[in-house]
Design a protein that fits this description.
Helices cover 16% and strands 32% of the residues. It has 868 residues and is an alpha+beta fold. The longest helix has 25 residues, at 611-635. It starts with a strand and ends in a 5-residue tail after the last strand.
Length: 868
């Protein structure tokens, strides 16, 4: 197979919306009025911004000024040269957003009504030697949806109207197969996209082609849990889908498939003299991989990737399938019964249990076509640095480009993949809509099934939960013949999973399980109403509420916080920063509802704050809420994972994320990173009477090796004057969580000191990524502290520290030793400068090294916060 790549050389023009496909000839002939020399992926906003026609809609309040784009037709043109002849030439447009009409050399090729699977047509009869012209008409697609269409689903579509944002959440999105977040959500503006969202190319074949390859790790029973297992083997089952283009006669063929690593073939299979019948043929092979290098999630092991190559030879022609990366691993979902009332919900990787640590992913830009491969890589790498092992791709966005999954494979980040259905009913009782979704699900499961990172496919986001609840009880009446979109998840997806990738776990929805969706006893939950979205403000801002969670797996919950000042200055675009302005309100999450200010007042200070103080205390509060809550979930042995909402932003705002739109770490990044450390100690109160009860210490060890640890635990006064300490030894088993000890708090004053458990000074640091070196954060095993009271209620002494610094290579190492308890210590570095830890607490006598990447020769001030 060869490809003619059509990534570059595009032109774009706008016309009235009523200029339909009958105007294609006239539009194509227009000599002027084109934006030229454009490159894919391409959204119409991109050249308009570049030409100064519109301002970037993620800045200030400019999003309102570009809504007219939804009311125009947009014409994309590419003129390309062909200097080869081939019997089979297929035009592939990987994503058309949306309702595309496609023309080649003036001939109409067809219509595409989904952005979620490719437009593919055989075009050899239309291609000419020399110059060819490809023309595509696109629109936002909203004009195709009428009130009658919405009436079929009883207008059961979630919008932001209840949050006072009528401009966010167009109901017509329910009938469109495109990224629906672009019409606005609580965390993003309305920026209606029109785009060729991925690649365009012409595939050239001769006699036969491999259409797809699937690989399943059938057996790893003989493989130990080590990253590399000498003397063992893994058995893989492969399926090759081969098409013979001769529609009349059969043909003979040879097929090969091989796995290579570091340039050496590790396993291969060959089928000689295979009979190809006209059309589609399937061939199964078994491969034995000696001494396999297993792929593990981040923190549990390494991420070796094999190169998979396959080829078919038929009638003297050779056709090779694109080489792809493959990680050898098995993932299963344990839903076995835990006790009389509860079932487990936990992933096992290569037979080892794991706690899923991560967050929910949304598209990384309101104009998703302009997300670069570099931005994908940076975001996924940062999730690895924050000790994630999972991201959940939320169902209101898109199936991301290959670069996203490449980065997840490389950095060990598992993907919980929602299908693109979220917070709306859809007309799956209509055959045309059902068929659109069938093609989408079939394509995406085949496309992603060989990815090492793919842990689970999920049918939708919140549709089972929302539309079976009281808000829609009077309108949505579920019937077998009209399931308002749930048939897609309850029937169609299980059928497709069984056909395409039965080895990958599937879950109907998120949340889902039990007598009603969002049950704590079965499946996953979205933990919103109990805390952050509770009408009682105190429950929103009290971290200890998360100690009450009994869910088997938490896949959504969150707490908002602001971006660094540099990001706020950017999105204010030169205008004065005023927290009472329309721009501030627009870039403030619609669910925030004064929660940030209330959290600051509860935990830190009642006084009026300047902007820089607000950003500091608000960031610390978000960090506290996320760090404490994630520790609470990880503390519970029955909980299989904690994913918070959300990881990344599509524009700058006071919102849910820990890394902002411009890739700057928010203060909360560091709290989450500590909560997710591969080796972690967590303290929580036990007993009915928390004031007099005991304290339990849980140890978490994600790594491949057992860790023996000498502990010091007890109580320390904030000024270091009182130290009621005891000693113990414990073993942290590999890839397990375990209660290490329980002790009584005694009669100490919670306002004047703190209960803690810490590694003794001579304890060896924890291994990271299964090698005996300091962890990436270079802080060993951090002490665990017991939070009993709000910081504002504590009798904290003046901060006293000893600080020294030294260059190490190109980095700066700042060594800090606390003489008193220090809350909210931070090295004042620019937000684009990365450090291994920041905004942390130190016990009296505790030391910590802070590494400033690229900081050699520079000086940074160590600061602490004022509480009260």
């Amino acid at each position: 197979m060869s490809r003619i790549c059509l990534k570059q050389g595009w032109s774009l023009r706008e016309e009235p919306l009523n200029y339909g496909k009958d105007m294609a000839g006239w539009v194509s002939r227009q000599p002027i009025g084109w934006y030229e020399n454009l490159e894919l992926p391409l959204d119409v906003h991109m050249p308009l911004i570049e030409a100064g026609v519109i301002k970037d809609p993620v800045l200030a309040d400019y999003c309102f000024d570009s809504e007219w784009i939804e009311k125009r037709s947009w014409w994309f043109k590419n003129t390309f040269t062909v200097d080869m002849a081939c019997p089979v030439m297929e035009l592939v447009i990987e994503s058309l957003d949306i309702h595309g009409d496609v023309f080649l050399n003036g001939s109409y090729l067809g219509h595409q009504a989904s952005a979620h699977y490719p437009f593919r047509r055989e075009v050899s009869e239309y291609i000419v030697q020399g110059e060819n012209t490809l023309l595509v008409r696109l629109s936002s697609g909203l004009e195709y949806v009428s009130d009658n269409d919405l009436a079929e689903i009883d207008f059961a579509v979630c919008t932001e109207a209840a949050n006072g944002c009528d401009e966010r959440g167009d109901m017509r999105r329910a009938a469109l197969r495109k990224p629906t977040y672009v019409y606005g959500w609580d965390w993003c503006p309305r920026v209606g996209t029109v785009a060729i969202g991925k690649n365009v190319y012409i595939e050239c074949h001769r006699e036969a082609a491999i259409r797809s390859v699937s690989l399943e790790a059938v057996s790893l029973e003989a493989v130990s849990l080590e990253a590399v297992s000498l003397g063992s083997a893994a058995k893989l089952r492969g399926t090759l889908e081969v098409e013979l283009f001769d529609i009349i006669a059969s043909a003979d063929a040879d097929l090969e498939i091989s796995l290579s690593i570091n340039g050496a073939v590790a396993a291969s299979a060959h089928i000689s003299d295979a009979l190809l019948c006209s059309g589609i043929n399937y061939f199964e092979v078994e491969l034995t991989l000696e001494n396999p290098q297993l792929w593990w999630p981040n923190g549990m092991g390494e991420q070796p990737l094999y190169d998979v190559a396959s080829v078919v030879r038929c009638r003297g022609a050779e056709d090779a399938y694109p080489v792809f990366k493959y990680g050898v691993r098995r993932i299963t979902l344990d839903t076995s019964r835990a006790d009389e009332k509860n079932r487990n919900f936990a992933l096992l990787v290569n037979g080892a249990p794991m706690f899923c640590k991560g967050a929910d992913w949304i598209p990384a830009d309101s104009i998703y076509a302009r997300v670069s491969p570099e931005k994908y890589d940076a975001l996924i790498k940062e999730s690895m640095e924050a000790n994630f092992n999972m991201l959940r791709i939320w169902g209101g966005g898109l199936y991301e480009r290959d670069e996203y999954y490449d980065a997840c494979d490389k950095y060990g980040i598992l993907v919980w993949q929602d299908m693109m259905l979220g917070c709306t009913t859809v007309p799956d009782h209509r055959e045309d809509f059902y068929e659109l979704c069938r093609r989408e699900f079939d394509y995406q499961t085949k496309r992603l099934r060989n990815r090492a990172c793919i842990a689970l496919f999920c049918g939708n986001n919140e549709n089972h939960w929302i539309f079976s609840g009281p808000a829609f009880a009077d309108t949505v009446k579920f019937k077998q013949e009209k399931q308002y979109g749930l048939k897609l998840c309850n029937v169609l997806m299980p059928e497709i999973m069984r056909s395409n990738c039965p080895w990958i776990p599937y879950w109907n929805s998120s949340p889902y399980g039990g007598d009603a969706p969002n049950s704590a006893s079965v499946g996953d939950v979205h933990h919103w109403g109990e805390c952050m979205m509770n009408p009682d403000m105190e429950l929103r801002i009290e971290p200890k509420e998360y100690d009450k969670v009994q869910a088997r797996f938490v896949s959504e919950y969150g707490y908002p916080g602001p971006c660094p000042i540099e990001t706020i200055e950017t999105y204010f675009d030169g205008k004065p920063i005023d927290r009472g302005s329309n721009i501030w309100s627009l870039h403030n999450n619609t669910f925030e509802k004064l929660t940030v200010n209330a959290g600051i007042k509860k935990h830190y200070t009642d006084r009026e704050l300047l902007l820089d103080e607000y950003l500091l205390y608000a960031g610390l509060t978000q960090s506290l809420m996320l760090e404490y809550s994630l520790e609470s979930l990880r503390f519970k042995g029955f909980c299989g994972g904690g994913l918070f909402w959300m990881y990344n932003d599509c524009w700058g705002e006071v919102g849910w994320t820990i890394i902002d739109y411009y890739l700057r770490r928010k203060i909360s990044f560091y709290g989450v990173k500590r909560a997710f450390a591969p080796v972690k100690l967590i303290l929580r109160e036990t007993g009915a009477d928390a004031d007099a009860g005991g304290v339990a210490l849980v140890g978490c060890n994600d790594t491949v090796k057992d860790i023996d640890i000498d502990l010091e635990y007890g109580y320390k006064a904030f000024d270091g004057s009182v130290a009621d300490a005891k000693a113990a030894s414990a073993r942290l088993p590999a890839r397990q969580r375990k209660t290490l000890l329980v002790f009584n708090k005694g009669g100490h004053d919670p306002a004047k000191g703190i209960w803690y458990a810490a590694p003794a000074a001579h304890t060896a640091p924890a291994p990271a990524n299964n090698v005996d070196i300091l962890p990436a954060n270079n802080v060993g095993i951090l002490p665990a502290i017991l939070r009993v009271m709000d910081a504002k209620s504590l009798a904290l002494p003046p901060v006293k520290t000893c600080v020294a610094s030294a260059d190490c290579g190109g980095d700066l190492v700042v060594s800090i030793k606390a003489e008193t308890y220090c809350h909210g210590l931070y090295l004042d570095v620019p937000p684009d400068t990365h450090v291994n830890d920041n905004y942390f607490a130190l016990l009296p006598g505790e030391s910590r090294d802070i590494i400033v990447k690229g900081g050699a020769g520079k000086t940074f001030e160590l600061k602490s916060i004022n509480v009260g």
